[in-house]
Amino acid sequence: MGSDPPPRPRTRAWRDGEIEAEGFPVAEISDYLERPDVVVWLDLFKPTSEELLVVSDELGLDPVAVEDAVSRHERAKLDRYHGYAFLNVYVPLVEAGELTLHELSAFIAERALVTVRQDHGFDVDALCERWDQSPDAGHGEPTAALLVYGMLDLVVDLQLEAVQALDDEADAVEDMVFGDEFPVREIQRRSYRLRKNLAALRRIALPMREVLNTLLRRDLRLVPPALTPYFQDVYDHTLRVGEQADALRDLVADLLDTRLALQSNRMNEVMKKVTSWAAIIAVPTAVTGFYGQNVPYPGFAQHDGFIASTVIIVVFSGVLYVVFKLRDWL
Predict the structure, then answer these.
(1) Is the same domain home to 242 and 319?
(2) Per-residue DSSP letters for 159-192?
(3) pLDDT digits over 117-174, tens only?
(4) In 122, 200, 256, 298, which residue has its Cα 20 to 30 A from 263's Cα atom?
């Protein structure tokens, strides 16, 4: 069975906050943008060179920015060009304790937004639903800033969900550390994976502060004053992601130190028990060794001597067992 063809580019145009058109060809974007009251969105999934050439001609994009959009593993950033900005962010998803990062690029013009995806990690249907439910969709001047707000709000919300999933994973590791079974190998494996996931999440969350700070700069005029509180709310959520990731890293480090301390304590308990049993066994060893000398002794070769040695072994071993039990060594 052959693989499914990649999704076709998705397009949508708004006028006065209402959907004017949807699913129109990419070549018609410039026609819609000629109207001063229309905002356009274009989504590209694994775009080909021909599609990128059409988009570049329609919006006048710089070849360097286009190259950044199609290349993989670019850092999270916001670059400004003449007449538009290039945004690159990451969407984290946690499944079965594993963190995967999905890259999302976007070209932000005054009245146009172009998103570029290389995989299905970012749900554009959820993004469209968020835009449709936006309470301010029909207010204010026509600008793509509202679309950018909805996109960044969804990305940061997914980052918050990822850090919460890693928090749950940290709770599971904590339960194993303080549990009775104490699976050392499993604790080491999951704690290492957790620290690696937190480092990756922190690496994509920290640059988001710079991205939001740049968008909120008044001298750049990328965000209208009416939308500033909304972007400020996204910035606050970004701070929460970074702070929770840092707190979880410290928690995991404390858990690892606690695991070593508990493992050392358990080893001490085992050594106490081994030492206690060795002391108990030493009593019959000493008695039988003493009576095993090849010289006559009281009770030698007599039934009374055997009874005496047995009583000594039982009494002294029992006394040692009781003493060690009372001291919680056994």
Answers:
(1) no
(2) HHHHHHHHHHHHHHHHHHHTSSS--HHHHHHHHH
(3) 988 889 999 999 988 887 654 445 678 899 999 999 999 999 999 999 999 999 988 8
(4) 200
